[in-house]
Amino acid sequence: MTADEKLRLAHLLDTTGDYLRDGFRLPRAEYGFTDDGELPPEASAPNAAVPDAVSVPGSSDTLDGIAAEIGACTGCALQGERKNAVPGEGAARPLVMIIGEGPGADEDASGRPFVGKAGQLLDKMLASVGLSREKNCFIANVVKCRPPNNRDPLPEEMGPCSRFLARQITLLNPKIILCVGRISAQALLKTGASMGSLRGSFKPYQLTDDLVIPLLSTYHPSAILRDESYKRPSWEDLKLLRQRLMELDSNYALEAGEGGR
Ligand code: URA
Fold it and tell me: How far apart are CA 123 and CA 174, in angstroms?
């Protein structure tokens, strides 16, 4: 087959699957097919360096660059209170980007997202569906500095931080975004709807004309720690996430399927 024939077939299959599943077309990175018998470019350049920093072709943006800007940001009053800004952490090419609300005391002290009690529960929830920040997830927050007394972030705090989050999403290009908690779901979907109505199904998150990412919302782990009745619906959401990942990523499907989950 020629590279062009392969590309047309792949686009047809992608589009059919996307419409059947969601009713909207997902953008994808170019496939880089070659004609049968021709070596792919990376195979013919064995010494090509793999960059440490993730960057978007044609752009000089990197995750490390964004983290440095966040560390120096004075865009809102939260900077005056912080011990550490918390840019986020995880896999450079994640299947899932998890987005929470904002750092708490433990995160402020360590500079790392979701490391307190809620974070430990989040790690367990992710592990139950074959995900982790070490392997295939990136974890970030809507605001990167701790709101005092863990209050909800204010619009004037979320506003300046939203450009950092948008750049992180663009660079990471996750297959799925998982919003944990009402604040991040409402901020990304630009809605005032309740978590009860936002969870339970994927919504299209449109970052730019060319970038639409399926977004799932579920309860924040600290809400689950406060109220056990959120456990069951959260598990239902995690099963939806696992199902969609199995459809989207063959490596994940192999591992999750073999795990018998
Ligand atoms: N809660 C959040 O929303 N984010 C964190 O990083 C920690 C707790």
Answer: 18
Could you list the beta-strand ranges (E) of the chain.
89-90, 96-100, 137-141, 176-180, 203-208, 211-218
Mark whether 234 and 181 lie in a shared domain. yes
Global pTM value: 0.81
Cα distance between residue 234 and residue 50, in whole Å = 37
Q: What is the pLDDT of residues 86-126, one digit of tens each?
A: 999 999 999 999 999 999 999 999 999 999 999 999 999 99
22 & 42 share domain: yes
Same domain (yes/no): 30, 102: no
From the CA of 101, give the closest atom in ligand 1: 3
Q: Judge whether 36 lies within some domain.
A: yes
Split into its structural domains, the chain has a count of 2
Residue-level length of the chain: 261
Q: Going by CA atoms, what residue is nearest to atom 7 of ligand 1?
A: 114
Residue 110 belongs to a domain with what CATH number?
3.40.470.10
Compute, in angstroms, the gap from residue 122 CA to the centroid of ligand 1. Answer: 10
Q: Tell me the CA–centroid distance for residue 45 and ligand 1, in Å.
A: 42
Tell me which residues of the chain have a pLDDT lower than 70.
Answer: 3-8, 10-12, 14-35, 37-58, 258-261
In terms of domains, do 38 and 122 share one? no
Among 138, 177, 137, 144, smallest CA distance to 163 is for: 144
